[in-house]
Amino acid sequence: MALPLGYNALISRFNLSVPPLHQTFWLGERAAESRVQAADGTERVELPRGRTSAEQTTVEQLTFALKREHLNLTVLGALFEQQQVLVDIQGWLTSKPTSVYARQAGYLAHWLAGATFDFRAPVGAPRVRLLDSAEYLVGPETSSPQFAVVNNLLGSRAFSPLVRKTAQLQALLAEDLRSKVTQAMNAIEPEMLSRAVDYLYLSETRSTYGIEDEVPDSSRAAKFRHLLEVAGEPGELTEEQLCEWQNLIVTELSAEYSYRTSQNWLSRPGRLRNIADFIPPPSELVDPMMQAVGRVAACATDGTLDPVVAATCSAFGLVFVHPFFDGNGRLHRFLLHHVLRQSGFTPAGVVLPISARMLKQLDRYSSLLRTYSKPRTALLNYRLDSDSATIQVTSPQPLWLYAYFDATELCEFVLQCCKLCVEEDLSAEVEYLRSHDQAVRELETWLDMRQAKLNALIDIIVQGHGTLSRRKRNFVQELSDEQVQRIEEVVARHFDEYIDKRV
Hints:
Blueprint lengths: L2 E3 H8 L9 E5 L6 E4 L5 E5 L10 H11 L4 H7 L3 H13 L4 H14 L14 E2 L12 E3 L4 E3 L15 H8 L2 H10 L3 H21 L7 H12 L9 H11 L33 H16 L8 H15 L6 H15 L11 H7 L1 H16 L4 E3 L6 E3 L5 H4 L5 H36 L7 H13 L17 H14 L1 H7 L1
Parallel strand pairs: 2-4, 5-7
Antiparallel strand pairs: 1-2, 3-4, 6-7, 8-9
Helix pairs in contact: 1-2, 2-5, 4-5, 6-17, 7-17, 8-9, 8-14, 8-17, 11-12, 12-13, 12-17, 17-19, 19-20
């Protein structure tokens, strides 16, 4: 029978109530190491029994976790609430004061749980970093003389995402998307760029509401577009600033003037569905977590982090904290644009249609959000009233449950969205406009039609891959079939390459 190792063993030994591990280690029966990938993406790794002892102490299991596994601050936060573990770490530090893993454990227990130890690193003990920069993206360094440990985590105790240097992430970062954005903009003549950007603003506005199945009225759409246009203004991410943005995104009845002071939750619509799909942090954690989210956002402008990584971690951090009762989703997607513009990744006056890209990959976007929300909410006991109007959470909601998460896949997703925005969406809109102008010039030599209607007709034919469907024929009932056929031929000829790429 396989025996659990590392975090897996510590969770079992102390009955820790934490989200399931993405990767679990086991002591198996086979002579060679084996790895099995499950359909849900989780991985089971079995090590040969001869290599590792079957009866490992807490210190040995903690050593294995720190040495072999990805740093999991959520599990460690729960683990360091156990008094016996702190006693074991004190003994470990006393018996092996130069041990790298003992000092890391001692520092993390102090940092995460406020534990104190009778210990001082021996003079000359080599400093050890919490994250290996070869495996992770790292933040600014702060040293602890007591443990001779360097904290290079992203964020702070109140909010600290982890980003692993996967092959995919490094390949995307190596593409230098910031330079690609600049090159793409410089390659388009100003008048054409202005028209293309106008469409991209419209697309982004519609898509951010479309993700939530909302159709904003003209006033709300205009306000959100204006917000996108002024994104990137200098300044820190403060409560006052976020409230100002939230007021522009929601209706007047939903405007809020401070972070929430009570528990909120998300539920999908449905009759008698007294089920919470996501229960975010309690209100007392909102302010410290949002301050830490702001510090991560600032890493985009001070050069500490790649702008897209900083934007992703802070934007998803905001939606996970859910500081308001309404508008969090739209605000989180706006924050991506704000941080990217503030860092200079996107030029002033230009917007990448990131929400439009997310809408095209809505299943993946939703799945990434659920990867954070579902396992955390599943650990909580709560009561919703019969009308789902109030909630009472009856189980603890510790900081470690919410403040730490692996943001690697989120960063990969947003980097891919940015890449496609630059390489496909912007060029596609410019190609459309050039084909449109050519078609208009030819059609206007013989067709007398209002410009707005002609523009709409061309768009309808392009959407129909070069033909006007019978269902849309009434749009130009004043035209003969011969005239319609002639228009179709002109549009199809000028949009030939554009249509071929999208069929």
